[in-house]
Task: inverse folding
């Protein structure tokens, strides 16, 4: 039965990886895979010799000796435990996404566009690089990529030039998301799972992540694509709302306050995110009710906006397929973890992988394993890889292993355009060809990834 569950998982995983070839949204195989894995566990419960109790993080070797009712009760408790942990991540993401959509409702991101006055291609490259790096740490790398490419489309009319910027933005956004607990889904998973803390994440990963961005941008600034001046484009459009700047700062401030709230109250991050969403929503409702809140709209648009509140409008724009995909993939990985499959796989990795260097992780996990995880995240989704690592390794919170995993999974996806959410959304917005990215951008991402990895290995010897 275990073999059948692994086959279901592998087939589902392949379907997710080949999403663009199969023309099937990845949420569908994720949900089917999750349901079938748990259904097979329930049907074959009597045949499993061991069980991994995730709540206590212990492997129960005597599971086969329990009677059927005890096994069913343990399975239901484990399923509920994993659903609760997954729900924490999903509710957190829903809150963050809604705040970003509220900012966009008031055209808050136009404030960022108004700061860009230069026409130098090289200067614009560096401006967007630092914007992507720091903005992704606040509003997550996926959203930062959407925002910055939307701005690029206003100020860079030539698509052949724009896709170069988009490719470098992917690298910067993924690097920026790695050192922030709210910058990337995988880092958020590690943070909510109490594997990393905000302070240690910054100490360990800020410099490696910064180098992961700086080195590719430095090399790219000498390429022909970034020489000269941009053609003239109309970039001085008036914002739709006079509250655009206020809502931008309020929304970003609310998201940034979440780690502080967690540190002070010791409550799960999603509670702080819900508080931030509530505060932002109050101001959004107040501003939208003002007859001066929306200008530059024709009568049809005004009627459409008056039909519902900004909060309802923002909730309707949330990308629910991504939320359901995370639900499916995290719960499917939880099924493998519960059977002890990931635990056994981690043990074999630690025994058989060659070691790199002398100062390694406390549990003897090879650096090569984590680097391969980073390379793997470029080929397949990094969410299940990190979810699997949560079940494979049992090192304590803030162990350097978790920070290296956060770095590798977060930045390794830049090596292929399909390797990260930022890359996939950029691919869709600019119709970037897979092989163009592989030829022009992937080698820059690889150089940055390796430089950052070396910097991390040096940093951990200090701390």
Result:
């Amino acid at each position: 039965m275990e073999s059948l569950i692994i086959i279901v998982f592998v087939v589902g995983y392949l379907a997710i990886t080949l999403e663009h070839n199969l023309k099937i949204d990845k949420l569908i195989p994720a949900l089917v895979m999750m349901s079938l894995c748990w259904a097979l566990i329930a049907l074959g419960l009597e045949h499993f010799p061991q069980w991994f109790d995730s709540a206590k993080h212990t492997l129960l070797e005597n599971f086969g000796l329990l009677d059927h009712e005890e096994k069913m009760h343990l399975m239901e408790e484990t399923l509920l435990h994993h659903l609760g942990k997954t729900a924490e991540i999903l509710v957190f993401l829903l809150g963050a996404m809604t705040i970003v959509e509220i900012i966009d409702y008031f055209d808050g991101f136009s404030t960022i566009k108004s700061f860009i006055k230069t026409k130098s291609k090289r200067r614009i490259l560096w401006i967007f690089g630092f914007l992507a790096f720091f903005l992704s740490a606040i509003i997550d790398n996926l959203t930062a990529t959407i925002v910055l490419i939307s701005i690029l489309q206003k100020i860079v009319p030539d698509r052949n030039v724009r896709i170069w910027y988009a490719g470098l933005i992917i690298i910067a956004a993924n690097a920026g998301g790695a050192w922030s607990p709210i910058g990337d889904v995988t880092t958020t998973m590690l943070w909510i799972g109490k594997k990393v803390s905000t302070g240690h994440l910054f100490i360990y990963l800020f410099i490696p992540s910064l180098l992961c961005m700086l080195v590719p941008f430095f090399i790219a600034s000498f390429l022909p694509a970034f020489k000269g001046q941009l053609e003239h484009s109309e970039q001085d459009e008036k914002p739709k709302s006079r509250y655009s700047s206020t809502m931008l700062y309020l929304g970003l401030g609310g998201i940034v306050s979440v780690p502080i709230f967690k540190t002070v109250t010791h409550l799960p991050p999603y509670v702080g995110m819900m508080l931030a969403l509530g505060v932002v929503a109050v101001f959004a409702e107040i501003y939208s009710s003002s007859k001066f809140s929306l200008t530059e709209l024709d009568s049809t648009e005004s009627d459409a906006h008056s039909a519902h509140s900004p909060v309802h409008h923002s909730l309707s724009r949330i990308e629910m397929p991504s939320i359901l995909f995370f639900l499916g993939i995290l719960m499917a990985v939880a099924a493998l973890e519960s059977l002890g499959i990931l635990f056994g796989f981690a043990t074999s990795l630690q025994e058989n992988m060659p070691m790199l260097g002398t100062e390694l992780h406390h549990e003897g996990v090879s650096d090569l394993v984590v680097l391969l995880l980073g390379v793997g995240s470029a080929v397949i989704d990094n969410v299940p890889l990190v979810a699997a690592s949560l079940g494979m390794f049992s090192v304590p919170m803030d162990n350097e292993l978790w920070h290296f995993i956060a770095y590798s999974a977060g930045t390794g996806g830049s090596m292929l355009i399909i390797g990260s959410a930022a890359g996939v959304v950029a691919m869709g917005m600019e119709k970037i060809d897979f092989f163009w990215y592989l030829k022009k951008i992937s080698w820059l991402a690889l150089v940055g990834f390796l430089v950052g990895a070396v910097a991390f290995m040096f940093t951990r010897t200090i701390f």
